[in-house]
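Box 3.1 — From sequence to structure: Phospho-sugar mutase
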Amino acid sequence: MAENAHDPIIDTAKAWLAQDPDEITRVELDTLVRDADAGSEIALDELHSRFDSRLSFGTAGLRGRIGAGSARMNRVLVSQAAVGLAAFLRSREASPTVVIGYDGRTNSDVFARDTAELMAGAGVRAILLPRLLPTPVLAFAVRHLGASAGVMVTASHNPPQDNGYKVYLGGDDDGSQIVPPVDGEIAEQIERVAREENVLELPRNAEFETADESVVDAYVAATAALLPRGAEKLSVVYTAMHGVGWRTFSSVIEAAGYSGIASVPEQQEPDADFPTVSFPNPEEPGALDLSFALAREVGAELIIANDPDADRLSIAIPDVESAEGYRQLTGNEVGWLLGWDAARKAAASNLDDAALACTIVSSPALGAVAKKYGLNFVETLTGFKWVSRVPGLVFGYEEAIGYLVNPDAVKDKDGISAGVAFLAMAAEGKAEDVSVAQMLDGFTETFGFFASDQLSVRVTDLSLISAIMSELRENAPSTIGGVSISSVDDLLDCSGDLPPTDALRFSLDDGSRVMARPSGTEPKLKYYIDVAAPAEQAEHARGVLTSIRDDLDAFSKRIAER
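Predicted structure (token representation):
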């Protein structure tokens, strides 16, 4: 008898195999099971990596690598999620409706159709969006169609081999992403389905509804309204990063009567392999190289980049000191300018209880903007599931290039509407002979100097993240970057109005701030560093920023080498 014959993980894999409706993952898993049965330790280890855990459903929904097994994204897991979500919705109302969207990633359309058929089979009215579309269109559709919930099949800017499953709620949640305790309640239903049901025996109904283009047209109209007709024309380069943004973005621009947009041809159409980038995230080094090349060719005044599902936005502007001829703005810099623009408009309109919001790891500069214009300022936990719920919100952002500029239409980050809003702001500046670079200088003159940096510690062993966080909690340094630490806030302990979260906030004597937290979507620990100073002390503040980053890097390496 083979050495591995009695390892229970083989029986677990066989049980999974018996209910897998996907030929590709069945073949993949069958090969592993046969090899493990024959004594292959490599195959057995791979089965353990796939079945020792389950891809957990949380406030970010599901997200992971495509493949067979409970710790991967696949049709079995998605089917269990769909039926579990359906049970949750039916426990809340008699006749729920769910709208389902999908992007251009591998299996996004398959997972979306499975969801629609299983939702309909479970007695939920299911509406599938007409084609692959950006995540913000799905978020818009939840409110526009008065749906009980929305499901978006996407892994956003994750690596090509990943996919995911995001859930939005209608009704009192007004189209925002789920938050606790709802995520736990849905997870319980999903786990019940996984325990009690065979995916192949779940009732399906192929007579679900498919939305027509009017849903997309309504989103386009609501977004085009952000760009005034007759706005000053700029030469603009746009990239969809091999995602689904171009068709919708170009429709919005056309509806606004705008022209002069040059799209990066190699990245314009959806491609699940993302062939021209090593990582499909506009923030990653090299991701905008093709945009820079086209911008130099056409003399672009602005580069607008969306991530693959178009819920994030990155901006680059001309810079003669850069080797590429362009400088990519940080997520905070884009947030400052959009927030400043939104604050001026809100103040001019005398909006009652208007608020600006950003996440706890974003720059505190937005607070200075809110103070100047007499607006409320709210810091939330990371994620737009929190930002979107701020009362009176007129603008919200997170430093990870996410922006909410049109809360009356979309209760989520929206890279298309943010791109249009930034274009409108830049066009207004051009009409007054003010460039985006000059706007940033004006921000410093008005609010003081702010600068931010990040340090990511990517790991293969997730226990290293816990080790670093434990060391920071138990043996925190007394100084960082040569500046004394005045206080440490552990956000696992409730802090003010914030729910508990695994994060640490270090406040330094000079007003600088460091946040440390594990990433919610990737295997890495992230440090967020912020410094502030009067405009005339900018150079000193930059030096402090560098010193803080160097110290954090050295600290993390010491822990990793133990």
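Summary of the box: The longest strand covers residues 449-458.
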